[in-house]
UniProtKB/TrEMBL annotation:
Record keywords, A-Z: Membrane, Transmembrane, Transmembrane helix
Keyword flag Transmembrane: yes
Keyword Transmembrane: yes
Protein name: DUF5057 domain-containing protein
InterPro entries in alphabetical order: DUF5696
Pfam assignment, any one: DUF5696
Segments traversing the membrane: 7-29
Length: 860
């Protein structure tokens, strides 16, 4: 017994220590050492360039420029003195310039803006004082001769060195090793060598280095002589930079000059010009840190004497007319919306996101259509009109290459200031923008949409839909909702079944009896605790809805009648209610280290931090680092469940980076990770519904919800167009927001809008009355009881289907506003639809369209 007691304590200690070590090992390998996502990130190569020699040009097309590349369709010209380029289109004879040809005559632009007009890109950076500054490649590189030009396959590369290379000592180094100095002196005669040697002494502060004497530093004439002797010895500015770097590395207190070496590449690819900046080859010296680059700000810009417009991907799409007189701030929108890991909590007006990374500019008989093919997740589309900063109408992409974050500093007297915190490393990617050149009848936004659709078809992003006898009817069914209950006065949360699986079957039977077909059911709140569900690493179908058996019986019932059942799932937005989520480890973080989390807009503070009384309304953003693990586990679980499809609530809608200082995942890398997860889920061979419909998700979607069907009414914008719909119609089924949850319901206007934009009707409904959700986190689902809506919903569907079923599998090839309030929509199969939003009837080419009505003209 004594022996047992003697060893009891050490054994307990060993067990406890073992448990602690095991836990530490688990945390390390499960979170810190988890790097599976890295295998999904792109690696970029850099093409070796050669000395530039202009090509022989049998028929020179542009004065003052030489031929850099040519194919069967295009010629690429450049002026090696200004580094501007121009494209000659052999098909039309049109010439497109990187910079306005008449820019020197601009009467509006000031000196700085004229420099911008001469530039091919603009760099925004932070200096050592964290002050935001700007460099233009024209005055910071070109006019100083600080650039070189190389030939690359099918194109040309300019390598610019931006910055002031002058120093107080010229190219004479303040510090130099004796070995390096002797190498210089060996190339001079004895008298010249003595002059240099006399002005250096052994450094007191830097071991192994010689240092210029104070007398030499203060003797301007002597320094000029020293510079000439160093040049005579063959010592170059590159040698000077190398010696400065060596001295700084050894501890010298001297600041490197702020310079940026940036390569800019132009390549011809069929009918397109590909413009690239390989950021991995950007070199920063000194304290400057690049934050963003604006690329080809004035490519094919329109002047004040032209008629035309700018196309921007604002929601469904918008046009900004040339010279519209709106002297306001520029149009500026982030592609795919704001990055959650960089945006503030301040609530702003809800806006439609940019879903497609494209833009364009139209002139009289020509147009340029641009697509950002890499760097899209880091891009912002910017556009402006003449009369504000210059005489031109322009559109261009701006790329964030390093994140910044404002840190509030509070003083003792109550004064405060926001200082920027800048990420240490620049993002490594190849920025790629392709410019296509359209002419004559194709030179408008309809031609741009047709071109882009064909591009996506060729890339296998879009595939023609199978023949459908009717358009879809989208029915979001509200299932499990958490509601607070009390047992003996003790509050607790339980799942309330707004619609059981059997009740859902009854609803669908009623819709079918009322003439609705091809129903696409998106079941909300079907697993893991209801609508704001636990993390989707496992699947527990809600028992109060009918459990897994009820779900699969519903799926079989729908499948037998030709309908489709989707299960809604969120991966990236994790509710505070989630029980199996380690937010300290798995949530994305701001660069400051704080966890990224949001809530609903708080009416009192107008900040997106409120749960409005319901804890589950708040959510964290899952780091892209761990997305692969969550999706993989869900993937394994869903395979065994008999359900026809899955609906991705956020993978095609939300795109967030993770700014952890030790392992930053930028937004472009996050996009690659998300794409691979959607691709993996598509391998399950189930239908896939995607909310939002960002471009990178289109290749995997059978159905899209919440697509942008309006634009944002920015002041600078002049006209709304259905560009998004023109690209995807006939290839992906789509709808926008639920009709019954839109304020100001107007039945006839709803029908007109659906027909005009090729949209399928969508409703969010429940079997039980929506008042049951009054005291729940879903109280904004304020009118969902299906008996109230079934008549209107069925009527809307039948009227829209009677028209759109004729064009369900056909692309929209042209959209025209033929009269104010009257639009003509042409489809590739020959059908034409006229929609009249006015109260009065109108006759268009012999076709009478009644007020608030529409006409379908048959295929020819």
């Amino acid at each position: 017994m004594k022996t047992i007691k003697r060893y009891r304590l050490p054994i307990v200690f060993i067990i406890i220590a073992g448990c602690i070590v095991s836990y530490i090992a688990y945390v390390y390998f499960h979170y810190y050492a988890f790097e599976a996502y890295k295998s999904e990130l792109s690696k970029y190569s850099y093409e070796k360039g050669s000395s530039f020699t202009p090509l022989k040009d049998s028929k020179p097309e542009i004065d003052g420029m030489v031929l850099a590349a040519e194919n069967d369709i295009l010629k690429l010209y450049t002026n090696t003195k200004t580094t501007e380029i121009a494209i000659y289109d052999k098909r039309s004879g049109q010439i497109i310039y990187s910079n306005p040809v008449d820019r020197e005559n601009d009467q509006i632009a000031n000196n700085v803006n004229k420099v911008a007009l001469n530039s091919q890109f603009t760099v925004t950076y932070y200096d050592s004082n964290m002050t935001e500054s700007t460099m233009y490649n024209y005055d910071s590189s070109v006019i100083k001769g600080q650039y070189k030009v190389e030939s690359i396959k099918n194109g040309i590369r300019y390598i610019y060195l931006l910055g002031n290379l002058d120093s107080p000592t010229g190219i004479v180094p303040k510090y130099i090793t004796e070995e390096r100095l002797n190498k210089v002196l060996s190339k001079l005669n004895e008298n010249d060598a003595d002059i240099i040697r006399y002005n250096y002494i052994k450094s007191k502060n830097l071991d192994g280095f010689l240092e210029l004497t104070t007398g030499a530093l203060n003797n301007k004439i002597g320094m000029q002589k020293m510079n000439s002797l160093f040049e005579k010895a063959g010592y170059t500015r590159e040698d000077f930079d190398a010696d400065n770097k060596a001295a700084i590395k050894a501890g010298a207190k001297m600041e490197e000059r702020t310079t940026f070496s940036i390569p800019l590449e132009y390549r011809l690819d069929g009918d397109k010009l590909i413009v690239s900046i390989p950021t991995g080859k950007i070199v920063e010296t000194g304290s400057g840190k690049i934050a963003k680059i604006d690329l080809l700000n004035y490519f094919d810009a329109g002047n004040m004497n032209e008629m035309g417009y700018i196309f921007v991907p604002n929601g469904s799409g918008s046009l900004i007319y040339f010279n519209n007189g709106k002297k306001v701030e520029e149009y500026r929108q982030d592609v795919y919306g704001e990055d959650d890991a960089t945006k503030t909590y301040d609530a702003v007006e809800k806006t439609q996101k940019v879903r497609l990374p494209v833009f364009g500019i139209k002139h009289d008989r020509s147009a340029v259509f641009a697509e950002i093919t890499n760097g899209d997740a880091l891009a912002t589309i910017v556009a402006g009109v003449s009369g504000n900063i210059n005489s031109y109408n322009y559109v261009y992409p701006s790329f964030t290459l390093r994140g910044t974050e404002k840190v509030s500093m509070f003083g003792a007297t109550g004064a405060s200031a926001d200082l920027p915190s800048v990420e240490k490393n620049m993002y490594n990617l190849d920025i790629n923008v392709s410019y296509a050149f359209l002419n004559d009848d194709d030179a408008d936004y309809s031609g741009m949409a047709n071109y882009y659709r064909n591009e996506l078809i060729n890339r296998k992003v879009l595939n023609k839909k199978q023949d459908n006898k009717s358009i879809p009817f989208y029915l979001d069914i509200v299932g499990g909702v958490k509601i607070q209950k009390n047992i003996l006065g003790i509050p607790h949360m339980e799942i309330f079944p707004m619609t059981t699986f059997k009740e859902a079957g009854v609803m669908i039977d009623d819709f079918i009896k009322n003439g609705v077909s091809n129903i696409k059911v998106n079941y909300l709140g079907w697993f893991n605790g209801g609508y704001y569900h636990d993390v989707a690493t496992k699947i527990n179908v809600v028992k109060s809805l009918g459990g897994r058996k009820g779900l699969e019986e519903l799926n079989s019932k729908l499948k037998a009648s030709g309908q489709t059942l989707f299960g809604d799932v969120a991966f990236q937005k994790i509710s505070y209610e989630a029980k199996n989520f380690n937010w300290k480890m798995e949530a994305s973080r701001y660069y400051s280290g704080y966890v990224v989390s949001f809530g609903l807009p708080n009416p009192a503070t107008m900040r997106e931090t409120g749960g409005l009384g319901y804890y589950e309304n708040n959510y964290y953003i899952l780091s892209p680092k761990f997305l692969i693990r969550h999706v993989s586990q869900f993937d394994n679980a869903i395979k065994s469940i008999n359900i026809s499809g899955i609906s991705l609530r956020d993978l095609g809608d939300t795109l967030s980076s993770d700014k952890r200082r030790t392992d930053v995942i930028d937004r472009q890398e996050a996009e690659e990770i998300v794409i691979n997860q959607i691709k993996d889920l598509s391998q399950i061979k189930k239908d896939m519904m995607i909310q939002g419909g960002n471009m990178y998700s289109l290749a995997y979607a059978t159905d899209l919800e919440n697509v942008p069907s309006v634009d944002n009414k920015f002041y600078i914008v002049d006209e709304e167009v259905p560009f998004y719909e023109m690209v995807v119609h006939g290839y992906v089924n789509y709808t926008d927001t639920p009709i019954n949850l839109n304020g100001g319901f107007d039945k006839q206007e709803t029908i007109l809008h659906l027909i005009e934009y090729g949209l399928s009707p969508r409703f969010t409904l429940s079997y039980k009355d929506s008042s049951e959700m009054k005291y729940s986190s879903l109280n904004y689902f304020y009118s969902t009881q299906y008996n109230i809506w079934i008549k209107d919903a069925s009527d809307i569907y039948k009227k829209v289907n009677d028209v759109l079923k004729c064009v369900a599998n056909s692309a929209i090839v042209d959209f025209q506003s033929v009269e104010p309030g009257v639009n003509k929509i042409s489809y590739e199969n020959g059908y034409t639809i006229y929609v009249n939003h006015n109260d009065e009837s109108i006759n268009i080419g012999g076709i009478n369209v009644a007020g608030k009505s529409y006409v379908l003209e048959g295929a020819k």
